[in-house]
Amino acid sequence: MLWISLVGIYQSVKPFPEGVNYRSAPITIPQDNVKFLTDLTYIDPEGKLIHDQEIFDTMFSLIDSAEQYILIDGFLFNPYLGRMDSCYRKLTEELSKKLIDKKQSDPSIKIDLIMDPINTWYGGRILDEIDSMKVEGINVHYTDLTKLRDSNFIYSPIWRVFFQWFGNSDKIGILPNIVSPESKKISLRSYLTFLNLKVNHRKSFITFSNGKIYSIVTSANPHSASSAFSNVAILIEGEFGKELYDVERSMAEFSGFSLDGDNIIEVDTPSVISDEDDIQIEIITEGQIKKSIISLLKGANPGDSISIAMFHLSNRKVIQTILNTSKRGVSIRLILDPNKDGFGYPQNGIPNRPAAHEIIKKSNGRIKIRWYHTHGEEFHTKLLINKQSNGQSVYILGSSNITRKNIGNYNLELDVKITTTTTNNLTQELTDYFEKIWKNRDGNYYTANYEVFEDKSKFKTIIYRLQEFTGISNF
After folding, report:
1. pLDDT at residue 34 greater than cutoff 90
2. Is residue 177 pLDDT above 90, yes or no?
3. Strand (E) positions, 79-138?
4. Residue 22: CB partners within 8 Å, gap ≥ 6?
5. Domain 279-470 in the same topology as domain 2-265
6. Mean pLDDT across the stretch 242-260?
7. How far apart are the first and last CA of the chain?
8. Is residue 466 exposed (0-12), middle (13-18) or buried (19+ Cβ within 10 Å)?
């Protein structure tokens, strides 16, 4: 017990690998080199379910035009549908075919695909899509999660002492695959690793074409069952791609593999001539995301507005800071997923509904909340907008939810922090996005009143607080 306790303490506070908990220097980007991308699923005035999508269509177009190098880091990449009968589009298969076609048409191009080991059940199941890409010479890599701190301090020390040494096997196991009940069974060793409940949750993309680097940072996964989810992304052309590549390379190094873009991405790019509408972009990962969010909230003044669109909101420090910020006269609005749908499995509203009830109650209604009305999919957006009365605006978007795991240096996460003027075109696009879904513009049905999914359950509040504290959760 003493040894398990010592292992648990060390693994929860050990030093970060290089590149974790990172914040870059601000990078100046001309406003014309930055584009906001969205995926939205909603009901139109005629009652039809509509899917407006830009993110992966843009990514696929960039793959088609890429020269020399492509890098994709995506959390989920598998065809499993959970208990869903079908999906909107087979994104995993689409991306796999797109990369294979690219490699066949241009054998000299280098392609690195990084993913979380959950996609193969930690070595317990091999996917046809991955095998097909490897045959064509596409590099498929898996993050070494053991190098990260442990969030599940009750179970993970036991796994590290007793179970991690057994490895895994892709032979048919004895247990059902919960993310694909109809597929082959998996091993007990897969589940024992899964119960550590930590991931590489980053979602980033880089291509090199005609001497230019194109980067995408997004909340969207290249995952078939997630294809109808509502998400956001930012497309950036230029110098930013070098910094993003360096962050990915650091993760590759501590995971024990190398990337193929070193001599390609490090080319000279044109210097930027400063303009008042230029955009300052920083890469923030893991705990630096939490610091940036809290700093932004604490620095907000009366007359400023904070708008947050989020899939999961549960971090105790951030929730308390939101409440304190509201007391100072800052306008705060939240659009949250009601946590009722999850790959065909019904969800119980945790953590968002009890967290929202606390926020509404303790703010005496000053903070306004609406729910994105999902229809089997999820509102998977991660976005914070701060419009300041001094004419400046700050945005944070990317892979990270506002939870203990996501911003507590346990999961791997990657966001961007964008600073620009309120008159900038990007500001107008981001503001219009939030206002459109907040106000259900043009007769489209995006969001529901708070009362529709209100939940005052004290039991759920206790459960979500325990899950948040112990790390025994999927958020």
Report:
1. yes
2. no
3. 110-115
4. 247, 250, 283, 284, 285, 286, 288
5. yes
6. 96
7. 28
8. exposed
Question: Positive or negative CA dihedral for 408, 461, 350, 371?
Answer: negative
* Cα–Cα dist 41/390, whole Å: 34
CATH of span 2-265: 3.30.870.10
Dihedral pair phi/psi, residue 353, rounded to 5°: -70, -50
Tally of CB atoms within 10 A around 181: 12
Exposure b/e, 44-80, CB count within 10 A at least 16 = b: eeeeeeeeebbbbebbbebbeebebbbbbbbbbbbbb
Encode pLDDT of 120-166 as tens digits. Answer: 999 988 889 999 999 999 999 999 999 999 999 999 999 999 999 99
The structure's pTM equals 0.94
Cis geometry, peptide bond prior to residue 351 (ω within 30 degrees of 0)? yes
- Per DSSP, 24 falls in state P
CATH annotation of 279-470: 3.30.870.10
Query: Where are the domains positioned within the chain?
Result: 2-265, 279-470
Q: What pLDDT, on the 0 to 100 scale, is given for residue 272?
A: 53
Q: What is the pLDDT of residue 275?
A: 65
